[in-house]
Write a structure and sequence with these properties.
Length: about 200
């Protein structure tokens, strides 16, 4: 998971929406690159060749100009209700049953350090790697960053590493799995007394 966690704060969502805004058209690839350098500056230190690579693969020719290879109106999806605190994905995180590599930019506001710590408390087997010198998101274009992902995938090729772990007993977990035999016995027993609340 590249610089995203089980909770994304509202101010971080608004920053992402701002960075995704773009003119509908660019006159040249140089203009595309200049836009990406400004709007993706949090991605870390990239070489000139890497910025050009991002421009080439992140834009498409349109007539005598260029446009970004996504619909800028996607920013509407990143503007939740004004009173929302952010996006919560804890329920999904509790249900993850495979090895997980969490990547975090050291200065990331999208994936706050405290969210990463809580995710590890819920699933201690998950692995967290923080990359210095960047925020949201690490570009994963340097050999060091690529090696982290490559090594994790190679380790995962050992099928023993993909055995389903036990579900978390974290207090807030609403998805703690009960073995089927236990569920069967429970279903045949009388219903519990009604709660007073």
């Amino acid at each position: 998971m590249n610089d995203v966690g089980a909770f994304v704060p509202l101010d971080a969502l608004q920053a992402i929406a701002h960075n995704l805004e773009a003119p509908p058209r660019f006159a040249s690839l140089d203009e595309v690159e200049a836009h990406l350098r400004a709007s993706r500056r949090e991605w870390g230190t990239l070489t000139q060749a890497q910025w050009r690579h991002l421009a080439l693969h992140g834009a498409r020719r349109e007539g005598d100009g260029w446009r970004l290879h996504y619909d800028p109106r996607i920013t509407r999806l990143l503007r939740p209700f004004p009173m929302a605190l952010g996006l919560f994905f804890w329920d999904a995180w509790y249900r993850v049953a495979c090895p997980v590599l969490l990547l975090r930019g050291q200065r990331s506001a999208v994936f706050p350090a405290e969210v990463a710590r809580t995710m590890l408390a819920v699933k201690p087997a998950a692995r967290l790697v923080q990359f210095p010198g960047c925020g949201h998101v690490p570009a994963l274009m340097s050999e060091r960053q690529i090696a982290v992902v490559r090594n994790f995938v190679r380790e995962g090729m050992d099928k023993a590493a993909w055995r389903q772990p036990r579900f978390s007993s974290f207090p807030a977990c609403s998805r703690t799995r009960t073995p089927s035999s236990t569920r069967s016995r429970a279903s045949s027993s009388p219903a519990p007394a009604r709660s007073p609340t």
